[in-house]
TrEMBL record:
CDD domains in the record: MFS_ShiA_like
GO cellular component, one term: plasma membrane
Lineage of producing organism: Bacteria, Bacillati, Actinomycetota, Actinomycetes, Cryptosporangiales
Species annotation: Cryptosporangium aurantiacum
Keywords for this protein: Cell membrane, Membrane, Transmembrane, Transmembrane helix, Transport
Protein name: Sugar phosphate permease
Keyword Transmembrane helix: yes
Amino acid sequence: MSGLETPRAAVHGTPARRRVAIGSSVGATIETYDFIGFGTAAALYFNEVFFPSSDPLSGTLLSFATLGIGFAVRPLGGIVGGYLGDRIGRKPVLVGSLLLMGVATVLIGLLPTYQMIGIWAAVLLVAVRVVQGLAFGAEWGGAILMTFEHAPWRKRGLYTGITQAGFPLGLLLANTAFLVSVPLGDQWAWRVPFLLSAVLIVVGIIIRLKVEESPEFEELKAEGDVSHNPLLEVLRTGWRDILRAFCLRITETAGYAISVTFVLSYLSSEDLADRSLTLFSLMLAAGIGIFATTAWGALTDRVGRRPVYLFGTAITVAWGVPLFLMLNTGAAFAIVLAFVISYAICQNCLAGVQGAWFSELFAARTRTTGASLAYQLSAVVSGFTPLIATALFAGVGWIGPALLFTGYGLLGLFAAVLTPETWGAAKRAEIAALERAAAAPDVVRPNSVTSA
C-alpha cells in the first residue's frame, strides 16, 4: 500500500471486505469444481473413455498425462493473469478467467468418446484441458489479492483463508456430483458433472461483477505508480521470493496430486475400495477442509505464517509411508481416515497459509504477477506428479509414490526455513501500535510501514 493510506482504513479493512472474500471464495469454488473435477474423471473414467481400452495401464498413464497438460499451461495463465491484474486491475481478470473456465468445462461434457471418433477424442480433450489450465492459472492471483487488499491487517490470514476454502468446497461439490451421477452409467456418469458447471458459472459471474476493485490497485493507479512491465520488474527484484514460494507450493499441490489424485486410481486398480467409498472419503475430507483451511489461515494471524507452514511440511514428511500402509489394509475406516489426514491436515494446513504469506512477499505494484507466477509454476511439477507416481508404482510398488510424497514434504520444509517471516512478533507489535494510533482522527500512516 502507498504511504497515503490511513491507519484506520488499513486496520479495519474496506467496507466491502466480507463481500469480496465471499465473492472470491465463490469464484474459487466454481473454478476448482471445474478443474479438479477433471482430475477425478481422469482417475476414474477417462482412461477408458478417451483412450484405447486394450491396455489399462497405458490408458491410465495417458489419462494422467492429459491431466498434467492442464497444470503445465497454468504458469502461462498465471503470467497473463498476473500481468493484466497489475496493469489494468484485479477485477477484470477474475471475471474473464471464470467465464473462460466455464465454457471449457461445459465443452468437456459434450465431447465425443474414443469409441465414436477414435484418437480425435483425446486431441479434443487435450485442447479443452489447455483452456482450462490457462483460466485456472489466471484465477488464483486475482482472487487472493482482491481479498488480501480489502482485508484488515490483523485478519489477512483469516480472510485469504476464506478464499482458499473455496478450493475444498469446489472439491466437495465436484465429487458429490460424480458420486450422485454413478447410477447414470459410464456414459453419463462423467458427463453430467461437467454439464452442471453451466449453472455454477452463471451464479459466479453475477457475484463477481458486483465485487469492488482492489483499493491498493486504485491507489497505485491514482498516483501513477502502476508498473509498466510487472513481469520483468518482479523477475528482477523478487526472483528469490518467487523461487521460495515455488518450493513452498510444491509440497501442497504435488502432495495433493499423490495423496488424492493418484490414490483414487490406486485404490481402484488394486481393488482396495470401490468408487463410492473413495468418493465418499474424499467428500468427507473436503467438507472438513472447508473449515480447516480457514482455521489454519486464522491461526497464522496469531502465531505467524512460518510456524504453521513448518508444522504442515513436517507432517507431510512423516506421512508418506503410513498413508499407503493404511490404504493397503483395504479397511473402510482406514481409507477414510487416510483421506482426512492427507487433505485436512497436510494439504489444508499449507493452503491456508499461502494466500497471506505469498501476498506479503511482494510489493503491491507487482504482487499479482509475483504471487501468481510462484503459485502456478509449481503446477508444472504437480500436474505430472500422478503420472510420475503411476510410473514409480509400476516399477517399485507403492513405496515409490510414498517416498515421492515424503520428498515433496522435505522440499517445502527447507523452503519454509529459508523464507522470511512476514508476520512475526515484531510486525504484529508494529501493527498493534498503528491500531492504537488509528483510534485518533486524521492520523496518516508513516511512509515507512508497508503492507507486507
